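Open question from group meeting: does this chain pack into something compact, or does most of it stay loose? Before anyone orders reagents, we agreed to write out a predicted structure and look at it together. Recording both the input and the output here so the notebook holds the full record.
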Amino acid sequence: MTSRRGLLALVSIAAIAAGSFTVPAAPGAADTWKLSLRDAVALALERNLDLAVGRIAPALAQEEIAIARSAFDPTVTGGVNHDESKEEPTSDFSRQGSTLDQFQVRFDDPNMTGGQFQAAMSYRDSSDQYTPETISRFNIVPTSQQATLALTYSQSLLRNLGLSINRTSIEQARISRQISEQQLQATMLSVVEQTIQAYWNMVGAEQSLEVARESLRLARDFLDQTRIKVEVGTLAPIEVTTAEAEVASREEAVILAETELERTRDVLRQLIRVPDGSPNWLRPIEPLDEPGFAPRKVDVDRAIATALERRPDVAEVDLRLRNTELTTRFRRNQLRPDLKLTGTYSATGNSFDYLPQTVTQQVFDPGPDGIPGTPDDVGFVTQQVERFFPQDQGSSEAFREIPDLDNTFWTVRLDLTIPLRNRRARAEFARARLGVEQARLTAEATRLRARVEVRDAVRNLHAAARRVDSARANLVLQRKKLEAEQKRYENGLSTAFQVLTFQNDLREAEQREIQAIIDYNNAEVTLERVQATLLDELGIVQE
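Structure tokens returned:
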């Protein structure tokens, strides 16, 4: 029989690597599928559907981290528009129509301190339609191009200020990924436990079938012996009927044992996910390992401490508590007023150079008193004046002028928003605090459950060991009892009913021994699982 230490050394990481184990081809359903416990666990770790589903969860959680980080991704936006208008003239210098082309490109970059930087570049190309006489008479410039670069930075000073608050969703996403990893580990522990127990249950069912068949053989031998005694006249014919009835009863027991064996095989096939259409659904599984029995003492306090330190469900509730605490911290921050500081600086360039020119023009001189229409009016006089005339340099000039900073604008603004009742924020903060208390109680309940499960597992292990000893002692006595009764029967001092009853007692004792040993091995596995040491004991290394 395989000892406990031998069993725990069966599985290694090489055996569970993806693609490292292949099931041998099956030429026909009559062949057996030789399967060791090591191979069964390796196949379960590689193929089990619950594990396949569980392995997706950490990948999904990883994407949630990327989604949370995306709140701080910079963006670039742009827009272009073209406008045209046609207007009916209302005076000699009125506009008859216009054309406008505009585009803007804006870069926004939020940061984790609660601020946001924005850079915007805009361009405007406008053209107005006038009559040539109007343009000449009033010196109108019908076209203009203008480019503007604006830089803006805004910073929250109360609400949403600081790295810790703005990174809350990222931290929670990371914790959620750790939770999914703990859940995967718990699933792996459960699948390995179920697989090992299913393997031992199958072995037990196979041994029980052998006991049932041996019991049937004994009944048939006894029937033959009874018929001979009836024929020679040493027994009454009714004894044959009793023996025949027992043979029929034990044939039924064999059928039930065969059915149970097939059921346990299917449970194992399901856990290791035998593919559809595989011949291994038809091939009987031949286990290569047998359960051993090596009683051991367990330090309950040490086992409990190990469980509280290693169990994934305990780690999971602690992580969930941390998430609720982060939510409470964020909701407390949202109770603050919103105070935001914004600064903007912009520079503008146009497509014209305004060149000074000296021109001659007539102006009316009202005389010394400066009042027209009085006797001291001088009248119209000719003067030399300097005027600025725009010279169109083309649209590129608008962009070239920006670094010159000839046309600039800057502003600083402080905005304060004070919620007067703020009922939503207050309710969300209160709910978050209740969530923390709930998470703390859940964590305490999980630790208490872990403690009870370990104590129960140790108790079951010790009880199973005692059951094995008791079953073995009972089996020895039942064999002696049957041997004695068989001799009494041969000497005519007993009946067929009594011998068959003792045979049934022996069969039940053999069944109890088998079940006690299976239960002990299953209890060992359960104890390792509730301590979360099962994978380590099996040599399974998680990446």
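Observations to bring back to the group:
Residues 356-386 form one domain.
The beta strands are 33-35, 75-86, 97-110, 115-129, 143-156, 285-287, 338-350, 352-365, 379-392, 407-417.
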